Task: inverse folding
């Protein structure tokens, strides 16, 4: 079975949001078009309490994008984003949701960030996503969404480590930093993942002769 993971397609990561990914909205028509081609569609949702320690606002004398040590793990400090039950945390209204089987919420523990859809950044706690996918006999995972160099990247690495055949749909992702996304893609390839384009999986109807 082939699963499609839609990573954090939420208002705060879209143009006008508090942690907007450049051209983040461009992925939406593509992922909408791709969804019916999969056996299972799962979405993730960054879902932080207001006191989350990945927010610069919860530290004194720190700015957004500073890097700190948070409980032994390097942590980039972000602007407040995807606060639980706020419009910024909602999935985009442009995103088709009828085919989404389940939504994995992550980043709820204020003491640790959670980029991957599978685990927090310390790999201390699972979200249950790997078990859910295995229960549905998923072997192939296709990943798209935001941000390409953070949550998409960490989800892909964990998918590979969990033993799934992993495909990153490059044109259905957008990164915060193109340079970091290049490095991320190289690491995904080095770990056995594949970088593909949406064209590679859209099954085109044969044209009439
Ligand atoms: C993300 C930074 C902080 C992401 C989430 O979805 O890539 N990035 N929280
Ligand atoms: Zn976050």
Result:
């Amino acid at each position: 079975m082939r699963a499609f993971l839609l990573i954090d397609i939420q208002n705060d990561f879209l143009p006008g949001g508090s942690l907007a990914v450049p051209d983040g909205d461009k992925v939406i028509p593509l992922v909408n078009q791709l969804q019916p081609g999969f056996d299972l569609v799962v979405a993730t949702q960054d879902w932080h309490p207001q006191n989350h320690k990945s927010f610069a606002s919860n530290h004194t004398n720190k700015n957004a994008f500073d890097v700190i040590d948070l409980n032994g793990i390097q942590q980039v400090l972000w602007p407040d984003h995807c606060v639980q039950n706020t419009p910024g945390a909602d999935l985009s209204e442009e995103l088709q949701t009828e085919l989404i089987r389940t939504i994995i919420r992550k980043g709820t523990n204020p003491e640790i960030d959670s980029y991957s859809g599978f685990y927090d950044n310390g790999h201390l706690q699972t979200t249950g996503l790997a078990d859910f996918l295995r229960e549905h006999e998923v072997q192939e995972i296709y990943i798209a969404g935001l941000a390409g160099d953070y949550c998409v990247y960490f989800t892909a690495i964990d998918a590979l480590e969990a033993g799934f055949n992993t495909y990153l749909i490059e044109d259905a992702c957008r990164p915060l930093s193109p340079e970091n996304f290049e490095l991320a893609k190289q690491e995904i390839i080095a770990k056995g993942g594949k970088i593909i384009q949406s064209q590679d999986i859209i099954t085109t109807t044969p044209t009439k002769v």
The longest strand covers residues 165-174. The chain has a mean pLDDT of 97.
